[in-house]
Amino acid sequence: MRDYITEASGNIAVDDMILVKDMQATAGSHMLEGFVPLFSAEAVERLENKGYSIAGKANVGEFGLDLVGEFSYYGAAAEGENLCGGSAKLVKDGSVKAALGVDLNGAPRRSAALSGVAFMKPTYGTVSRYGVIPCACSGEQIGVYAPNMKAMQEVLSVIAGHDAKDGTSLMHETYDYDTDLEISGVKVAIIKEMLEAASEDSRAKVLAYAENLKKKGVVVEEVSFELARAAQSAWQILMAAETCNNLSRYDGVKFGYRTPNYENIDELYVGSRTEGFNLLTKQTILYGSDVLSKNRYKVCYDKSLKVRRVVADAMKAMLSSYDAVLTPVCSEMQYTAYDISDAFKNVFKESFFTAIPNLIGIPALSVGGVQLMGNHFDESLLMSLAKSVEGMGA
Amino acid sequence: MTAKELEGLMQLNELSLSDKEGADMLSLFEDMKKSEDVLTAIDTENVEVMVHVMPMTNVFREDARKQNFSRESLLAGAPEHTEDSWQVPRLVK
To answer: In a mutagenesis test of the A interface, which of B15, B26, B40, B60 is the best target, namely the one with the most A β-carbons within 10 Å?
Structure first.
């Protein structure tokens, strides 16, 4: 088992869901073993143009679909018995200054929480997705792992901004992120349903974080957000449907893995995909295909797109009364190895805490073992809140 | 979801599962169906679908021929290829 993959010396690690020219890109999958991209992601190019160097690719779970990278074809990243993400571990160790990750269902946020570093999933469209190995395009986003808010602000400022090569990239040329906004008097809501669903240690993290914020003059209140479960289900459906479509490109013909055992084209397709994908990926594809099927489309996929709007409106209403939202990011603060046959259910369970930002595109900052969410473009507020309590301990 | 319906989904997606994995998948479908009840409970009668969460713009470029990558470099990533094409088993006998 390899903890993570490094290929060169440098100061930024890149999750293996993001293309770096001439560096193998596997998305943690056997399907892409040996695949070497011909170009780099826009975010990577922006960093290199500013003088950063790429340390190498960090291990991820297959297509970023698992909890924290435990089901990478190349082995799980772990510290002792506890699972952790490759990039988060590199940042925690101080091996790199920061890392880029792709958040499509919360894995980087969970990894950061377990390793004691930060991960920002910025507002959808602020960072170009050009050069991301795509899965769930309508909600996935490149973000930054960093040891503190200073490094977070620095790296995020470099990679954010309009990119004409990405149709989902917003038109702002640059973003002027700030980590020193006045936070006294800022109002933060804790989502009651998520607090109740978390284990004692995860809940304690949130409550301790809230106490630290209060010491800085932040007003913290518990509120109900009854749509949290609906957001989780809607994102599961949309994420699976989009993953099903995006992974249809892997057929063993144009690139990636090809089974050695075939006699005709059908055997080539089925053998390559069956051997190239792990069970979690196959289950996600099949569930995605089911929710897109004629009989289920209206009640699942179409319904989820409507629920997305309902959740977005409700969150907008909440964020008109509060400036930010504080929640657990994981149900537990430690994950240990488990069988892949349980992965789909486990990830779905944990996505209760992470689905909303993917579903409606708002920024989410995993820091100090908790999650801060805000309105679109409120990354500066989230980083300022986090910076104000850095070093205060839980 | 029946075993036959699952078989259809697998065919559609060019995938195969073992008998045990297939049985687990059927059970998973049942669990997920129950989890979807929370969506059914929400009244979306007059709600428009939200495909994109942020405003989208079309990406246009000049209608001009442009060679991004050489054929050789594109074929380099293929599992099997001839001098100038991807190689697949014979389709027409």
So the answer is: B15
